[in-house]
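Troubleshooting log. The previous structure file for this entry was overwritten by mistake, so regenerating from the original sequence record. Sequence copied from the archived sheet and checked twice against the printout by T.R.
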Amino acid sequence: MLLEKVVIGNTVESLFYAIKTDSFIVYNRKRPHLFYRQFPLSIMGDSREPKVISRLLLSLSLIGKVIQFENIENIRITGDVLKLFAENQTYSYQFGQCKIFDPTGVIHENEISHPSAPMYHVIDDFELKNLGRAVKNIPSMNQDDRFVSSIHFYTSNRVDGASFITDCVTDSHLTLDQLQNFEYSDSTIKFVVERYLRSIGVNGTVAGMNKNGTTKYRRPAVKHVKRLVFEEDRNTYKDSEHVKFLAPSLLEIINE
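Regenerated output below.
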């Protein structure tokens, strides 16, 4: 099958670029959609990443521009031939131009112009208890730090019928050494979450009265549930005749 223009990516930016340039999209996303990621403008009636990705993928699917498989094991580019290895099958496509938004997991012939050690996007999920049903909203924490760069609180379906905060999720971007170091473990992140809750005055449920007549509260209980780790290729590669690497922001794509 011949593809005149193809985009390899898994973000809103790559999907929007594929629509704008009338390209096929090889959608190779492995990490979950981040419900807490918001865009500075509304796209197709929403600004939240899961909704926007779903609607952009649907639009591309309706015009037959999505190349997607349940489990893409490998993507290999040789010259102007793209091969996908998925579900014990090999799918081959010839193309004219290929634009790569995320080179992670893509084997290609392009030279590295600026090498960079791989980074790992780490998502830690926690259960929160003893907050009480009255706590329906807790502000997110965002900071310029690769270790626990953000904390986001949400209501999960873990508690049937809940309309109050039950869980939180954190983002970190770590090196391999940090990933193997206890100082960057989920146990340490648990302490960061507990400290943040105290700093913004979030108490647990009422546990009686203190001797001085003030209300006594339980401490919010934070329990780690799971850790997801995704490798990120941070190298900068040289463009070639058929393969180019892009990293524009959404606004840059719109204004191009």
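The chain has a mean pLDDT of 92. Archived copy saved in two places this time.
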